User: Fold these one by one.
Assistant:
Number 1:
Amino acid sequence: MLLAFVPGITLVHAVGQLYISPSTQTSTKGSIIQYQVKVANIDPFNGWDIYVKTDPTVINPTSISITGNLLAVNFSSTVKELINCVNNSGTGCTSNDGPGIAHSLVTIQGPVPMTKPTSGLLFTITYTVTGSGSSTVHLFNDLLFNGSPFPVPHTTVDGSYGAPADFTISASPLSQSITQGQTATSTITVTSANGFSGMVILSASATPSLTNGPAATFDHDATVTTGTPGTATLSVATTTDTPFGSYTITITGTFGSTSHSATFLLDLAALTAPDFTVFVTPTFLPTVLASYPSCCATVNVTSLNGFSGMVSLTQNTSPVVNNAPFASFSTSTVNLSAGQTVLVAATINSFALTPTPAPSPKQVYTVEIVGTSTSTGTTLTHAGLAIVNVQPAVFQRGKIDFLRDVSLTTDSGMQTISVKVQNNATSDVLGQLIVRVRSTDGTCKGTFFSTPITLPHGNVLANQPGVQEIMSITVNLNTQLGPACLPSGETFTLRAFVTFSGSVCSSAPPCSLSSTGVLLNGLGGTLAPIVGANPLKVAVGAFGFGARSGGFSKQDRGTFDVSP
């Protein structure tokens, strides 16, 4: 018989029980009595296939009724009775039916109707008392369906007529999840009923029965006395070759012709190879202004399943465009120990000419942080993502270029410095390039200014960049410092500054010196606050220039050696 598998059923493994009610009763020959088959605290199910056997010379079944069953009464399910067989007569009888056996199989249309354990009536059996003595009302071949290939785990409790001695069997826990190669255990308890005592022989089988399937054993059989249960330990061993999946272990206790069973559910997970993960926090980074870095992203590299070894970090940016932002790391290699998480600081860098906003549907850049390792003998690769929005800065500049950054001959003494600048603010400003030259011993030094130029504005509020301008200055060290300052072998340091301000100084003092005596940039006046993002924080008094100058400078450094 085929039963439909209904996905989405999650077993919660309640300590469910299938039992006979009342547990025992007596009457006189010729009387009509009834026993009910019930469940208590049973996991969700949508049908059953249950046999109940009695001694027909003591009590003989005459009919089965599913009226009042909990599926129909409690959940309004449409119940379909597939087998109603009494004494091997009726509907759907099987080869297991025979004298004294009542057999009921019921299913419903649709999925499992309940979401949590439930209790109630399944069906009622009517008996005629045919003789004296006692009889066990024995549940066997009992299955409760849940729409999956495996029956619902439960324990069974038989009833009796005339109160014969008997026992019950149960497993605790009813289920366990392990990984291939591990062993699951459960305590099996056999309890005396109606004065039973004796040694109950324990056996177990696994369903499905597969090659290299789980092997169930017991440490010993269960010895039961009146009032003292017998216990044994069930061990279900697996190997790395045992197919992963769910197994039902049926535990059977036998004493003479009497046997009872309990079920244990084994969830066997696949053995997972050592591995690692990479993720970035936060995923959505603060807005980055072009030509400025974004602070404080963290790359989390975590060992899984005992992984240990070296992980190399690289990065990819999407979309791929010229001057796209990129990630740099505090370290590009991580040495992971088993179970360890290593945090690596990451900075998202951008260029003055980074396209803003990003030329993509979402107008953002995705920076993929990739971790790669060959420590396990195979190449493992995992990645985390950082999402960054790049906006144009109010002022942008490219790298300050030095014509010569290694040597300078005494014949020429010439050095040209240039820089590309761009004003993205909402109004024009003045820009100037200043170069400071200083010998190693400090005896020769000078400061040189380019002519201030107007930097046409863009509109940072509308993501409209300004016009790119090139500022440059050529320094003739022979004439401006003098030949005596250029002996062969001397080393000079050049510092080049880019400054922005609102106007040119009208006189040398106070524009030439700050309050601390530091030479200023030759620009004075105040620079009105810029509406919108302003990475340079340009404002009156910024960076110690005082109220007389709102200028701001950025600097690069180069060195050169004087050669013959």
Number 2:
Amino acid sequence: MNTASRKIPKLPGFHVVGIVTSLPESHGETALNGRCVDNNTPVILCDGPRVSIFAAASIGTATFAIRLGALAIVLASASAAAGQTTRELRWAGDPEGGAPFVQADPARPDEVEGFDVDIAALLARGLNRIPRFIPITFTSLDQSIERGDADLGLSGIEDTPARRAALAVTIPYYEFREVLSVRDADRSRFRTLADLRGRNVGTLGGTIAYEILLRAEREHGIHAVSYDDDVHPYSDLLLGRLDAVLLDDVLAERRRRATPGFTVQPATVAVGHYVGALAARNAPLRDAIDEVLRTAMRDGSLERIFRKWEVWDDDQPRLYARLLAGVEVPPVIGLDEAIGVPAMSRWEAARQYIPSLLRASVVTLVLSCLAMGLAVGLGVLIATGRVYGSRPVRLALAGYVELVRGTPVLLQLFVLYYGIAAVIRLPAFAAALLGLALNYAAYESEIYRAALEAVSVGQLEAARTLGFSERQILRLVRGPQAFRLALAPMTNDFVALLKDSSLVSVLTVVELTKQTQIFATNLGSWVIPGILCAALYLAMSLPLAACARRLELRWKTAPA
């Protein structure tokens, strides 16, 4: 076969690797890769991303270009179809959890890094899929996986009996120890949980460590403090708000390297394992993932990942040996009782949690009443100052109102509790009370200012004509009428405050919504906890609304 060069129009997205320019004319066709091809037909061979384009010499350049364009359209359509059928491994994690699990890449903030990120990529390769990360809050991972938001959850997810009962969990890929951290000055005093009677011990909510602390409350008289992240427990430990922190050794050692000043006690409280979580209906995918994990244990892929993130230790080879030998690994080692509530029905579990929900409801109600009372008092003062004050006073109060209304209440709570901790260390409840009161005072002041200005000018002039002072006018004429006008929106704000009190859980205050979240995490479902939580909120808000309506009706029908 003689060959000569022929220029082919450039085709974006395709790689031309060869051209057939001369074919035996006596036969009218030739054998190309075992197939008979007509001399007048261009041939395109695909080899992965490379596309070989062949053109018979008997085809003119114009005809070849036309046919090549038609084939390009066909190939583009086939490529698009192939892209659509490429399967993804959608995996979920919480980027706020931080390294070494999942965190935003400092060099590329729109991407994530961590050993769970590397494990997700390893699993995707083993399954011939493309990994796609879906950010989901840690406390919502189980529920999101069950409803199908992602195929797999990986974010330092702990293996528990409750999780095994509700989801399809993978074999463990990492073994960790629950360890106690104390300030350096207390390393000889606080060695175990039994040494911490009457002390505050913090941990991450919805974890094995939190269940251990709840048990220690009953057995050793400690006070368990729940956090939404694994950073603030250690900062509060150094600030003196906590006396100890119970968390995974992976988290404790990482935080100790970044923030010196505390000691990780060598004693192990319990042993747990990290697993991947899938919906119960995805058991076949879970089995495939287990095989990929076993292969990675044999060939050292997992070890390389954990060494990269400096978390490999002598516990992992022993764990892998048991798993590869087919030995069953229990979820938690070192505890006499099972963690979670898998052995009982959901209604039985609900009956056990009802007392905790009721206590949390009392916290919510007391906090809301105190915050609203303080907000009303401050709101009245701000409204009065904006109506009767001098220009500098009115400008200052207006600036406060706009600042508070223009920033999120969650940010204000963080500033009060964590931001000014170096100057003033407010207790969690006091910071929550002050934060809600200051926030709602701004909104209440606008209601009262509008109500004050709604009183007719004629009444105010008549009072002045009768010799009333401005203070008397406010107390006897303007104030009572303004209060009647403000009652309805003020009641609405109180109901809103009841619900907004759920935000104070970020300050470790365990109110109704936080306790419900803990209940739902341990139960593996939001249905029963959500119903109970809604019923308790209604029980608190409906009587208030009814009382406000009766007052409005009574004042409306009162004789002039």
Number 3:
Amino acid sequence: MFRAEETGPEIQGDNVRFRIYLPNIEEDRGFSVKVYVINKIGQFDVNVPADVYDLAPETVNPAADDKWGELAKTRWCSKLIHLSPGTYLYRFEISGPDRESGDKVRSLYFGDPCARETDAGVFSVLHIPAESYPPWEDDTFIVPTVEELVLYELNVAEFGGTFSGIADRIPYLHSLGVNAVELLPINSIAEPTRWGYMPIFYFAPEERFGGPAGLRHLVQEFHRNGIAVVLDMVYAHTDRIFPYQIGYERFFHLCYDDRYSDADGLHRSPNPLVSAYDNFGKKNDWRMKSTQQFFAAVNAFWLQEYHVDGFRYDHVNGYLDRRPVSRDGKIDWYSHENRPTFESLQELSKTTYQESKSHRRFMSAPKTPSRIIQIAEDLRESAYQLSPVSASAINGCWEKRLADVAQEMAIHNFLSADMARELLLSDDRFDEEGYTGRKTVGDDIIPASVVQFIESHDERRLFYLMQKGKDHDDSGYEYRNGLDGQPWWKLQPYAIALLTSVGIPMLWAGQEFAENSGLAKEGLVRVRGLRPLHWDYFYNVATSTDGSTVLPLVTLYRNLGHLRRKHVGLRAPRENAKEEYSNQEERVLVYRRWAADDILIIALNFSDSERNVSIPFGHAGIWIDVLEASYKDEKYPYSKSVTDPTAHERVPVPGNFGRVLRLDSLYQ
């Protein structure tokens, strides 16, 4: 079994022993391993050389757990080394027979694959004496249920620059009604301008963001404010300088299969994780138990050491857990025949679910289901991932169809006939997959819900599309600078739609104040540049032309976020949602959400003019516009008295805005 605690530097006071798993790097085949260590303050001084220490393979104890998946662990360790107090950088080097010639060669330097802290390049970090951290003070925090989530996606580099910068902005996030944040990958990467989707070190938070101490402080502050933390984890592929790739590449060919045959018989792939297949980067081979155990250990580590509350699994439709089909020498990774079996995701999510049950913050009471958040990115396939047929513990899935519809509407300035279907998840695909909003994991029944969004890190901003009137138009990041005189108010009905939709609403950082950047259609520039937020938009005093109800966009998002958390009817399942009226010519949409006696009707107007909309209320009583009432200076919000529950009543709906009408039970 892969055990993270058996790897990395073992520090005892002023002494350290280096430990690393290197399957198939065997001394009797001519391999040797060294570690290079230098005090950080001397790393750029030509007169300060690194100290070099030899490692040796451990003598295997027959009674010990000496397997990592199907491979021998082959743990190499140094002797106990005395170091003066300080911060040290270290990296490894393997010497052994070249994979082609058999001549002795040296690997490129590579970092510790299980490093807990890193520095620039491939350096791993250790402290003498070992770092100590303040005790956790989040014993009273309980993760929100899936049904309660209001999710906010952000890139640390773009949103606050550092973990500390984000912590400073927690009051802002709290004001939006957010109770869970989804952080783009924070694992250490090679290039600071990348978004984080080419990981190198899976156990180390990015040092430029604040490293281990900074992340612990951030999670502590989030929990203090009732906000859960979800990490975006990239397990489908790796960067070339991932230690198990760059450290092995001169000695072993990467394999297309997890096992192969030659004249000497059947062999396992010599690399414990990385395959020869390439899509965004070399694919991790999920057919191998060593890969499965490694990433299960990664998840357990983040739950235990950093108290994170869940994971968003990037690109799960790229998990290599079956041999792909090649046509004419090419692999279409996105064809139906090359979709994974998802056995890999099933086991990872279920193992992680069981691990979570040992942590108090996931359990509302003893012997209750865990509230861990596990979100898959399998775009447009949430009906499968969230249905019992998926046999996983995944309880959230990104659903891109709403974003697709919203983008088309933004570009072409119309109301799509598909808008209500995607907002309310009324598509037959959910019924066909047997989706019920619940899944069984062991003896537990857990909720499962779609993550709804209109913007994400992978999308062009809606406001950008509105102004361009077309899709991609540039090769990089174009900004439409400033909001002055620009029709930002057209975003308002989209905001109301998102926060009243069925599922988990997710905001992408900046959409709440009309951030307006473009995004290249393809190429590395998509993931290799930063899009810093224009916080000046947040402070702008916005004005509009006559004919539209104009309220600062941030205030609207704040009010909607709190309305969603207040009204259970807005969080009800798809069975409690119904389209009532749609007029594409007038660009008006009306739908109903309810749970018991919390009954709401949402009327959206995507046109520039006020519309008198005929609404079938269905219940007699006083209906109050709770959205209008949510503004503190609105003492007398719009209300409608309905005496005939079968009649259609006309309601004025402001242009580029909407109403959220709730049946006031006191007047039924």
